[in-house]
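S.,

As promised, the iron/sulfur cluster run. Input:
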Amino acid sequence: MGLKTFIQGWPVYRQLTGTDPLGRGAAAQSARSAELTARTETADGVARSVCPYCAVGCGQRVFHKDGRVTQIEGDPDSPISRGRLCPKGSASKSLVTSPLRQTKVRYRRPYATEWEDLDLDVALDMIADRILAARDETWEDVDDEGRPLNRTLGISSLGGATLDNEENYLIKKLFTAMGALQIENQARI
Amino acid sequence: MAEAHPVGFQWVMEAKKRGAKVFHVDPRFTRTSALADTYLPIRAGTDIALLGGVVRYILDNELDFREYVLAYTNAATIVSEKFADTEDLDGLFSGYNPETGSYDHASWQYEGQEGNTTVRGTGKERDSASGLEHESHGEPVPAQTRRDETLRHPRCVYQILKRHFARYTPEMVARVCGIPEEKFLELARAWTENSGRERTGALVYSVGWTQHSVGVQYIRTGSIIQTLLGNMGRPGGGILALRGHASIQGSTDIPTLFNLLPGYLPMPHHADHPTFDKWVDSIRHPGQKGFWGNSRAFAASLLKAYWGDAATPENDFGYGWLPRMTGDHGTYQQVLNMIDGKVKGYFLLGQNPAVGSAHGRAQRLGMANLDWLVVRDLFLIESATFWKNSPEIATGEIVPEECRTEVFFLPAASHVEKEGTFTQTQRMLQWREKAVNPPGDARSELWFFYHLGRVLREKLAASTKPRDRALLDLAWDYPTHGAHAEPSAEAVLREINGFDVATGRPLNAFAEAKDDGSTAIGCWIYTGVYADGVNQAARRKSRHEQDWVAAEWGWAWPANRRTLYNRASADPEGRPWSERKKYVWWDPDAGEWTGYDVPDFEKTKPPSYRPPEDASGPAALAGDDPFVMQGDGKAWLYAPSGVLDGPMPTHYEPAESPMRNPLYGQQANPTRKIYEHPINRINPSPPEPHSEVFPYVFTVSRLTEHHTAGGMSRTVPRLAELQPEMFVEVSPELAAEVGLAHLGWAHLISGRAVIEARVLVTDRLTPLRVDGRIIHQVWLPYHFGSEGLVTGDSANDLFGITLDPNVLIQESKVGTCDIRSGRRPTGPALLDLVGDYQRRAGMPPDRKVPIVTTDVLGGENAAGSTDEQTPEAAARDGEDHA
Ligand code: SF4
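Predicted complex:
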């Protein structure tokens, strides 16, 4: 390394002579940071999304590579959030990539003390059977005066408010058609 | 707002930079208070007294925006001479029926219209939460009413309001709320000075406001102020609800709520809605003004979307298949029914009631008494593991080997692993693109419900039972894609938007809805989100490329309108109230309404339009009736019907309070929904004895770093690290009184539970001087539970179950408790401690909570009631409580 290169390597020299007098940008950059590439630059794609926490509805850009989420950032185009995210929105990459997430169906038999494994298809089938049985056991055709009721009070549901509109639509449509009336949501709470 | 909606708060700071004065009212000093111009500490549960004080200040000093008030509100309307106020009846309005704890609304009506209401004091509306329905539909009111434009008539709304709030003086505000008079006057002055022709003021509330036994009336009081000051329908004005979840607005619009169908159509009631025609007429009120006049088309189109080809005009579009309500089927009634063994199966879809709902112990004991439970979530939350890891395991109330509930845990897809729309707090739908596939067995709710429906239909294919027709004839053929056969969210959104049945063409506006079965619409208020066959919610035109209204970002219902009732931003002649506050106005040359937003008015109806006598529906709205969903086109300062606990807000103490109501003999809301169940013991309040057993007021709210029941935050390392432990904030004065050490432990006791927390001694909380005594308040975050990276006791365990009568939302922002130094006992000793408090406070399992606490009724039934309850209604009411 020549003397000149050595001196030019000093951040203070670059700060005094370069375009970054406050030393917050190029002047402060090390060789190592000059070599780094942002995950956002190498992503396969970016999905325009929305923060899943509160109802402000901050815009998110979800960067992904090889089928995995690599970064989530605020969307600077959003007129709501102008690119900002709060601590929760900023942590949403940790949320979706968390190793604590359950990715397998878990099943607890009556009176059991531990979880068991269960195939998703089998679980779906078992749940369908239980719905039909509960419905048959508790079905009410008419009230005391013969007026229609068409319902079961043997089934309840409580949904969160991070469900999509499309999901809520199908939930309400299916439960209504099966006569399940006791369908509730965080919106009541 | 800075704590719980931080990014939204940037706009408050923008306004402050431009000269707005920011006031923050909260029991606890927060980051919002730190950034506000003035902070007002308040005793939890007394907001109506504070806001009522502002109403009085406006009326006494005649500071209302008189032109706006005369033209756009019911201030001049004359009310029935049968009406008696809380001022006359010691905290009750006329028409109260102590047997049912509800009101007959006849005497509340406008003069000459006493027969107008159907609400007859049976409590039925409360049980079916139809207050929520009135909130959007309005009760029937006549288009023509007797008015006094001078506002002098003693029975005009303006004068009634003035008398009603006359005692809400600055001294009374100080006495009830603990807010010093000069701080109150500073607020009242700033609010009124910043309203009127040239200026507008905004009221922003967090939905903790709804979590009170008088929650709806809190918001009503805010509406009265904003209407008197002319702040509704105008830029920079309004009432802004900060809702707490990404799509909680969507969950109300396309409700998964027992009493509603999409687009605020009511779920039918077995007695009131025997036929399609009766059901529809109860929504549209034939002859009534306003846009609900078209509801026959909305209702027919919904049923057409549900049952497709099987829905025909001949079979009333399948109306007969809809399940019928008979009373209260809300989530708290359900939980008590679970404890009583009446419910077989329960679905929890991204919801964690073991931590997030009031009375956690009741929630968990309910879950432990089911045949089966399905939990769909990202993580193993407390509601999935109650049978092996809950406080009741330690006390021996749940024994795994004896707990029969079969539990299915199905992992859910996250927000980046599926596509679809969220509706944020200002009614704006934003479409999310999918980034990656969900891992392992994780699936979207869309997948789960579509395939559940498919399997159910396959299993029933051979059924001939009438009850199965509704499932078999359901329109359920959504296209699917990918290895997991994921249904198309866009196809569902198209159905929600609605389409022409013959051609499949997406509809552009709900005005295209037909009542003959030729249109199908899943949620009429969302019609237009797929206008021109384009997913409008996916629009992402940068804010740099459009004006400040940003109409091309996402899509807001209805009709992409960003400010509701914006016709009111122009004067009766259609001219902007001022150049500064110009928003939507009439362009006489073009012959249409125009402006920055989509006008909330028929585009070519001129301001001078006057309807013919016999008009109804939208055609009956005059050119200067801006409140187009109301039955008279006016904003209501006084609600002759539709709000079940009174035509005007009244200060009542919370269901649990250490204080006697300083304003009336009536202590708490006389119409609140109570549940007398052995598990639901409510702490005594004055005038009952023993309230001193629970001398302190507690309130709960959010931390910036956590989210509701913690399922999406106590599981995230960064957030868990930022707020790692359950704590309770106490003032230095209370710490000294009880002997609590900073960073030490304390336990809190209510009539339901004991929880422990680390102590944070801070002057963010301050003892309040109210009604001649000192009230101490403590604050807790409600995010903690027994699962996740960081754990702690749940604050919601402390609450009992008492609900607002209009919407059946629980009072979970205020309660009473005791606080002691040290950790709580464990195991059965914990139950002994609660039992000890229950004994000392006189709370046997069969205790009746006194509802009427004034002797104004003098043993008579129904003070001022104009109609006796019919035997039929009485019988129906009895059955409703079954
Ligand atoms: S980033 Fe924060 S403020 Fe924005 S939506 Fe998410 S939780 Fe709300």
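The radius of gyration of chain A is 28 Å. Chain A touches chain B through 122 residues (CB under 8 Å).

- D.
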